[in-house]
Amino acid sequence: MHGTESPSPWVQRWSHLVPVGGTVLDVACGQGRHLRWFAGRGHAVTGVDRDPTAVAAAASAGRVVQADIENGPWPFEGQRFDAVVVTNYLWRALLPVIVDSVGEGGALIYETFATGNESVGRPSRPDFLLQPGELLQACAGLHVVAYENGFCDHPERFVQRITALRKRPSDASVPARHLLPE
Length: 182
Known about the structure:
This is Methyltransferase domain-containing protein. The protein is an alpha/beta fold. It has helices spanning 9-14, 33-40, 52-58, 95-100, 134-138; strands at residues 23-27, 44-49, 63-66, 81-87, 102-113, 143-153, 156-165.
């Protein structure tokens, strides 16, 4: 069943950049695989999804809000999180809101389908496929630590991924030291 698989390797790889004990928002959290991952690492987790069945399944991991974020208001207006995680989800109108939800010193870990995926499966509509460099543009105000845009073969899919940090004003003159996993 979708949402019950292991956490995304991309999310796992960059989880160390989330401040210890920090708050994590999982957008379109599904059944909570990333909520459970971060809760297990000692983070306070919040998820949002429109599917009541998914929300019920994810609720054991932490706070989960049922909301239609594409057609209704953003349920976290004015809130910022130490990390915002998004996988396999794209609603372009929300990209600025998602980026703005990353707090100072926080991380955005985002991975979803990209142009080219229409040649191997679903999603195939351009509305749900990132254009080359689109996540880089959306994260222009953040410090990009890692970015990928390419093809994965297990299962076959085209993806775009980014991990980006919002610097604290006090960090402006200090070179960032973000450990890159080997």
